[in-house]
Fold this sequence. Notes:
alpha+beta; six-stranded mixed β-sheet; 3 helices; about 25% helix; disordered N terminus
Amino acid sequence: MGYQELSLTAQAPAGRRAGAGGAPYRVEPFDPALLRYLQGLFGPVSRERLHVIYCDTAQHYLYDETLAQGCIDRMVARARPLFERAFQLGAGKVLLAHNHPSGDCRPSEPDIRSTRHLRDIGRALEIDLFDHLIFARGRCFSMATGGYL
Length: 149
């Protein structure tokens, strides 16, 4: 439950393109182009990294950035910089993505706790955390699909 195999064929970064016909790109967690883009960002890194995609309330792409880096088995994701940036951009929704250098894309207990904490803060601020994707060795776990959001 929540797993998605990735196809790692090269393609332009999805988050930085307009959709068909020049329309704004709608961020969908299981869009293969988006998954390839995010997997490419994490690559074979040996440290955990947290990447955020900021969207408007209709889930149209606004901006994305790496927000935090940790060590091989943990990372501290602070809420304040995440939501400050969301307010600066006028974002109404965010998608989180991070990697597990261990190779296991299943969420750890700290992953689950911190995701739910960020979700709750976002709700209070009217910013929806619509998914948190965890990448490891060509696999991806969706915390929304897995029932953790």
